[in-house]
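Q: Predict the bound structure with magnesium ion.
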Amino acid sequence: RKRCIRISTGSKQLDAALNGGFQTMSINEVYGEFRCGKTQLAHTMAVIAQLPKEMGGAEGKVAYIDTEGTFRPERIMEIAERFGVDPDQACENIAYARAQNTEMQTELLDGLAANFATNEYRLLVIDSVMSLYRTDYVGRGELSERQQVLGQFLRRATQMAEEFNLVVLMTNQVMSDPGASALFAGVDGRKPAGGHILAHASTTRLLLRKGRGEERVAKIVDSPDCPEREATYIITTGGIND
Ligand code: ATP
Ligand code: MG
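A: Predicted complex:
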């Protein structure tokens, strides 16, 4: 039987709020406004997942699907230095792929099954999960088709998380355009893209926002094993930290 492992976020406070970090065999959504640290969290966890368990890692490789072209190997190297691991090795342990459209996003996910079958992988990042759906499916007329295709993608990701003992970490934007929000998610202009299908697929959801000064705040929403609570973190050269 596979044993569930928790991977640290890089912030002790946030880890404590999450009962020790994000769990394998689950899919997790991190959402929030631009520049609140979603991509930085993805980079940080891409390094931590490789670390020994006593350092909050899972001794695993990482798959990284990038839909926005914001992956930076230089950041991985800086974060690796914080944890005292070889920067080149840290990069080599990340199977990186850039998706240009939703079809490619699905194909990349399917293609990763071969990697995951080696049992060396513990983290799958999808940064961000919705952006290509929003550009490939425009307007209300395509909404039901989009949600159907998105549902298939999320079911596959959930299956893979369980079958291959992975943390799936998906980022998502909060739409600031109230018109788009009313169309795709809710009506208050503060809802993440993807609507109910994405919300229900995610095991744990984390809402990020800017706090005072450099401080950022993460709120745990809809977790099966944590109460709704908040933790603060900062973004440093070495990634997410306290
Ligand atoms: P978006 O919705 O636009 O994708 P995001 O939530 O992914 O935004 P990030 O790119 O993760 O946001 O975070 C951007 C923030 O990270 C910026 O405020 C930037 O100052 C900070 N940041 C990036 N690199 C470093 C670094 N080396 N040291 C400190 N802070 C950094
Ligand atoms: Mg980003």
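A: Confidence is low (pLDDT under 50) at residues 179-189.
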